[in-house]
Amino acid sequence: MAIEDKQISYRIYLVAVSFFLVACAITFKLTEIQWVQGDFYRKLAKERTVKNFIIPANKGNIYSADGSLLATSIPNYTIRFDAVAPKDEDFNANVKALSDSLSLMLGKPSAYYHSELRKAKADKNRYYLLARSLSYTEYLRMKRFPLFNLGTYKGGMITEQKTVREHPIGKIAERTIGYERVTSAGHPDGKGIEWSFRNYLNGKDGKIVKQKIAKGQWKPIRDINEVDPQDGYDVISTIDVYIQDIAHHALLKQLELYEADHGCVVVMETKSGDVKAISNLGRANDGSYYETVNYAVAESHEPGSTFKLVDLIALLDDNKIDTSKVYDTNGGIVTYYGRKVRDSHDGGYGKISLARGFEVSSNTVLVQAVYENYKDDPKEFVDRIDRLGLNKPIGLPFEGEGVPYIPQPSDKKWSGLSLPWMAYGYGVSVTPLQTLALYNAVANNGVMIKPKFVSEIKEWNKVIKKYNTEIINPKICSDETLKKVKAVLGNVVKRGTASKLYSKDFSMAGKTGTAAANYGSNGGADKYYISSFVGFFPVENPKYSCIVVVHKPNTSKNNYYGADVAGPVFKRIAQKIFTDSPSIKEIENLETKIQKVEVAYQEYNDKIQADKKTLPNLKGMAGMDAVAFLENLKIKVKVIGIGKVKKQSILPGELLENIKTITLELS
Asked: Comparing C-alpha atoms, which of 96, 79, 82, 85 is closest to residue 142?
């Protein structure tokens, strides 16, 4: 008995020791978790129950110079259906009415939606797609549909929202307005103003801390954000919607007429360098035209005869010869190192002056003049080109600016042909905007300025940054040379290669260009033409400069010259601006009327601001401002035309709750 009691005692001791050891181990582990690994486990627990959520910043808008909206962000909704979420009795009671509502809104038969919804229910589909790309108004409407009005968990409506960038004026200037995106590889990418000014437009995202609660929902821990989002600034471009519309359609008409591959047009304000219009159109396989490449900025090519302005400036400003110097066109052919330079006019022009040679774009005259005066020191001529700034990119804010090429006498590729070929625009390469900047400098009393696409960065009415006119070259040549050059450019239109463009009603000056491209490829079989016209108007007091370049016009049309292909675009733009622009007095009256309309609108808006129940009078507002205003009121807007609101389909005073869609007609 004593032995048995002793064994029991040993067992008790053993159990006690075991419990003690386990207790020690637990105490050790708790101590380790608390003090050694405490930070790790606390962080892990926090990550699973507390998380930072991004609060996206509102992206700024891009406006035209006249206040029209060029790019803005709007919400876009995708709606899906969780067929498992609704109870069977709720689903069966509402599915028919829901199908009818979806049919009215989305267009397919009610029976189709009834069948699809029941199939999704049977398959326990928790992510059935119902609709994409809904506006905010359409989203609110769908939320009120039968079944969906029971709420997310009882009704099964799943909403996915994203913000999309819209161009309210459509495809016009789309490539210059640009875009910002993330590539399939996850890299940020973009073009145009959207990309170049993204640091201003995008703002800064905010952060809010939320804690996980029941059913996977997250609730803010505090009433304030950890970091408040900072909305992006607005970018005010130099684009004038009216001039842009003229330029776009004038170019489009000519591209379609000549079935050209692509083309561009730029209209620039002479004194400020503000680009008032820019259009870049390329031909699709179906024959339509659209904007994909900013040819005016990115495409560096042989300019042809528009480069002859450099010859004239150099010859006159270096005091080599005067415009009265006479040259023999030698039957329209001169030869250098076994290679022939031909005039486009068969038989040449006989003996004519340098000025007349420029007016009729005689290759033989300009080449002879340059070669005879610079052959002993070609570097003098090339240095003149370099001083004009044509040997380097302008330095525009956009990525992908075309790189010019001006051969140098020190280059290995330099040959005896280099100088005469340069004289009529071959063997060199410049962008359309470089050529425009040179001609604009002639119009601007010799001051060469950088083309400008953005005038201001604004936060509401506060100017954050202002972009002033930037001078590239304070004086490209003497005043005496400028006077002679202007006169000759004016005569090109009056009696030269562009005489078809002449109008007694308004004055223009400029130069035609017709360059053969790809002439050395495949024995010349792949040769095509580049037609251009560049100049300014009016001649007496230049207000605008403009360049038009058209690539690969269809030669079967029997005409590919700059005066016939590109020139009419230039004339159309100048004509519309001259004809449709009101006088100074009319402008003052118009401004007064607009101010009165804006004041009246503001007073009316202030009157209804308290209740926001009725529609205001939008007449006189910038069209895209009206669009933004109505979108904020959850009203879907259809726009006809561009400019300011001329007419609204629903009269002022109508109750907002009764308005789903409104059409605005713009002037």
From this structure: 79
Residues 6 or more apart from 279 whose CB is under 8 A from it?
172, 173, 244, 247, 248, 251, 252, 264, 265, 291
d(CA 438, CA 426): 17
At residue 167, the pLDDT reads 84
Cβ neighbours of 137 (radius 10 Å):
18
For residue 349, what are the contacts with CB-CB under 8 A and spacing of at least 6? 329, 332, 343, 356, 357, 360, 362, 365
- Tokens encoding 384: 């003149």
> From CA 513, how far away is CA 665, in angstroms rounded?
40
Nearest CA to 67 out of 649, 652, 651, 645 is that of: 645
Q: State how far the alpha carbon of 241 is from the alpha carbons of 79, 271, 422, 541, 586, in Å.
A: 36, 19, 38, 23, 20
3-state secondary structure of 614: strand
Tell me what the pLDDT averaged over the chain comes to. Answer: 86
Q: What is the pLDDT of residues 293-336, one digit of tens each?
A: 999 999 999 999 999 999 999 999 999 999 999 999 999 999 99
User: Distance between CA atoms of 644 and 638, rounded to whole angstroms?
Assistant: 14
pTM comes to 0.75
Contacts of residue 306, Cβ cutoff 8 Å, sequence gap at least 6: 425, 435, 439, 511, 512, 513, 532, 533, 534, 562
Give Rg (Cα) of the chain: 35
Q: Quick: pLDDT tens for 457-509.
A: 999 889 999 999 999 999 999 999 999 999 999 999 999 999 999 998 889 99
Residue 519 has a pLDDT of 74
Residue 612, phi-psi category: left (phi > 0), alpha (psi -120 to 50), beta (remainder)? left
d(CA 76, CA 139): 9
Indicate whether 611 pLDDT > 70: no
What is residue 600's predicted lDDT score, i.e. its pLDDT? 39
DSSP for 474-542, written as a single string: S-SS-HHHHHHHHHHHHHHHHHSTTGGG--SSS--EEEEEEEEESTTGGGGTT-EEEEEEEEEE-SSS-
Rounded CA separation 373/420 (Å) = 11
Buried residues in 144-170 as b, exposed as e (16+ CB within 10 A) = ebbbbebeeeebbbbeeeeeebbbbbe
Q: Is 107 left (phi over 0), alpha (psi -120 to 50) or beta?
A: left
Q: Which amino acid is at 46?
A: K
